[in-house]
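Methods — Computational structure assignment.
A single polypeptide chain was analysed. Its primary sequence is given first, followed by the predicted tertiary structure written as structure tokens.
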Amino acid sequence: MAANGARQVVIARVAGTACGIDIEAVLEILPPTDTTPIPGAPSQVLGVLNLRGGVVPVADLRSVLGFPAAPFDQETRFVFVSYGQNRIGLVVDEVVEVITVDPSACQPVGGDFARNPGLRAVIRNGDDLVLDIDHEVALDACLGDHDTWAPWGNGTLQAAERKKASSAA
């Protein structure tokens, strides 16, 4: 993060909507590959894959955000992000660009929009609007108890607990 509070955001399209994910959370971006389904996983989880020797779950960001499913095409990407102490892949329709966001360009959400977990703000990017996504909160809201299905097993803290613990430190 820059001294003036600016931060960099990866812009991805999801169901035609520009969504921003903090670049600090993004580990890598890859073309899609086959996943292995996980019995008992939430419907948003497409499955797991082997990524550099680790088993990593992949969730469809369309489904996480409440958009209808769509088939993959040549622009579809898996965006691998940190998720607590773990990694998770997010399926997006395409990765567009990386932008630097000044805090003054962010409008916090309120009212009915605030009911959408993970929607932190709306970013003005020139004439375009970008949904500022807190992927950990959005994933926690739909993925439930990770210990019942996630490949990383016990010890996963929910985003709210992680943030509370880090702010207390």
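Note: The radius of gyration is 16 Å.
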